[in-house]
Amino acid sequence: MQWGSLENFLEMGGYGFFVWSSYGMCVAIVVAELVMGRARRRRALAEVARESQLAAQRAVAAQGRS
Q1: How far is CA 4 from CA 8, 45, 64, in A?
Q2: Which of 5, 45, 54, 65 is 20 to 30 A distant from 35 in Cα terms?
Q3: What whole-number distance in Å separates Cα of residue 6 and Cα of residue 56?
Q4: Could you state, in chain order, the average pLDDT of each consecutive group of 10 residues for the chain (66 residues)?
């Protein structure tokens, strides 16, 4: 299909709203997935650091009791 102008391309033969809204939804979902993935990673790293710090404190406390 050939497009005579940018306006015709954007209209997509009368289906432009559906085509472009689908692309928009896909982009929004991909962006949301990336943002949520980064947030989960940060939380997981913080939890590992907290657990590591607690384990080190427990080890020092256990040595002090010996």
Answers
A1: 6, 53, 82
A2: 54
A3: 64
A4: 85 93 98 98 98 93 81
Give the H/E segment covering residue 53: helix 16-65
**The pair of three-digit structure tokens given for residue 19, joined into one six-digit string:** 């085509």
CA distance linking residue 22 with residue 61, whole number of Å: 58
C-alpha 8/C-alpha 15 separation (Å) is 11
Residue 31 tokens read as 């962006």
Query: How many Å apart are CA 48 and CA 21, to the nearest integer?
Result: 40
